[in-house]
Amino acid sequence: MIDHLNWTATIVFVAFFALVTVLGFVAAKWREGDLSDINEWGLGGRRFGAWVSWFLIGGDLYTAYTVIAVPALVYAVGAYGFFALAYTILIYPFLFLAFPRLWRVTHRKGYITASDFVLGRYGDKWLELAICFTGILATMPYIALQLVGMEKVIQALGFQGAGLAQHLPLTVAFVILAVYTYSSGLRAPAMIAFVKDAMIYIFVIAAVIVIPYQLGGYGKIFEAAGAAYAKKGGPTGLLLQPAQIMPFITLALGSAMALFLYPHSLTGILSANGPDAIKRNAVALPAYSLVLGLIGLMGFMAHAAGVQVTNPQDVVPQLFLKMFPDWFVGFCFAAIAIGALVPAAVMSIGAANTFTRNFWKPFVEPDITPQREAAVAKLASLVVKIGALIVILFIPTQYAIDFQLLGGVWMMQCFPAVIFGLYTRWFGGTALLIGWAVGMALGTWLAWGPTSWVPVHWVGDWFQAYNGVIAVVANIVVSAVLSLVLKSTAKDDTSAIDYVAA
Fold first, then answer.
1. Is residue 31 within 8 Å of residue 45, measured between CB atoms?
2. Distance from C-alpha of 64 to C-alpha of 69, rounded to nearest angstrom
3. pLDDT of residue 502
4. pLDDT in tens, 301-319
5. pLDDT digits over 398-410, tens only?
6. Domains present along the chain, CATH in parentheses
7. Residue-by-residue DSSP string for 443-501
8. Is the distance from CB of 456 to CB of 250 less than 8 angstroms?
C-alpha cells in the first residue's frame, strides 16, 4: 500500500491533518455551552458573529469536491465549467434579501431547520416531512462527494491497495471526523474552517502566480487550452457554444435557488448571532467567488502543462505534483482534504438536525426533550457519515457523482414552500405538497437519461434548460393553481416583527 508513497508530501499532509483533529476536539470548549442541548450542539448556540460565520459558511459552500470538480469540468469541457462561478455570484444577493428574514422567524420561534419553519407557517406535518426527506436525500451523496475529493488527494500521495484496503486511509480520516463532530458539534467545523480557508487561499494564490510563471504566462495557457479543445472537438472550448448558453444560464440560476436550501447551508446561516451578521456575510462572501474563478483556471493550466488523465477528477492533484515541490504538494493536498472535513461535518449535522426535529420528534417521540433531541441528532450524524462512506466503499464513484446532479433538482422543489412562505401566506400547505410531489417526480424523470443522469432537457423545440428549473416551474404552477381552492388553514404563527427589515 505504501511502496510508492511520496513521504515528504505525506508527512506534511499528516501534520496538518493532525492539527485540525486536535482543533476539532478542542472546539468543544470554545464558546462553551451545554452540548447536550440541540441548539448548542447543532447550531453553536446561535452565537457566531459575522467573522466566524464568514469562515463557516464559506467553508461550508466551497468544498473539497469544488476544488477538485470545477477544474475537472473546465479541463473536460472548457467554458461551460464556469457555470459554478456564475451561480456563486447569484446566490449572495439572494442571501442578503431573504435569509435575514428567515433568521428572524427561526430565532423568535425556536426553529432549527427549514422544515420547522414550514410546519409553523403552513401547519402541515406532511409538507414538513417532505421538506425533511428532500434535505436528507440530497445531502447524502453530497457528503459522499466530499470523500471523493479527499480520496483523490490521498491516492495522489501514493497510497495504493486492492479492494477495500485502498479506502483504509479515507476510512480512518472519516472515523476521526465522526468522533470530533459527535463530541463538539458545529463548533468543530467552525473552528477548523479558519485553518481550512487560510490554506485554500494560500494554495490558490500560489497556483495562479507560480504555475503561469513556469508555463510562460496566461497567454500561452489560453492558447494551449484552446488548441486542446479544438483537437477534442464537440461542445468544448474557451467560449460557450450558442447551444450552451441557455443550459448555462438555467444551470446557474437553478443551482443558486437550491444551494442555500440544503440543510448544511441553513445550519451555517442560522448559527449566526443575528440578521446583520448574515447581511455582512452576503457582502463579504463574494471573495470566495473570486477564488473559485481562479480555481477554475487550473483546468486550463493542466492542458498547458501537458497533464494527461483518464479521469478528469485527477487533474488538480496531478497538476500540483508536476508543478510544485513535494513539501508544498503535501500542504495543498492537506488543504483539499481539510476542505472536505468542514462541509462534511456541517452536512452531517444539518441532516441530523432535520431528521431529529422533523421526523423523529413528530412521528416517533413527540414528547422528546431538548437533551434527548441532541442525543438522537448525534447518533443520526454518525449514521449519515456511515451511509456516505458506504457509498464510496461499495458504489462506483461515477454513480455517486451522477446521483449528486439530482441534488440541486430535488432541493429546488423546496423553494416555493420556504422562500415564498417568507413573504406571503397565500399558498396552501396541501397545494405546496402536491406541487412538491409534481416537481420531484418530473425533475427525477427528466434527469433519467438512456445511460446516465443528464442535467438538461429540451423545452419544446426552443432550447435546453436545467431539469431543476423546468421542474420547479411546474411545481410553482401546480402550487399556485391548487392554492386557489386549497387555502392554508394554519393559524398565523407570525407577527410583523418577524419580518421587519434590519
1. yes
2. 8
3. 42
4. 999 998 888 888 889 999 9
5. 555 566 677 888 9
6. 7-396 (1.20.1730.10)
7. HHHHHB-SSSB-SEEEETTTEEEEHHHHHHHHHHHHHHHHHTTS---S-----HHHH--
8. yes
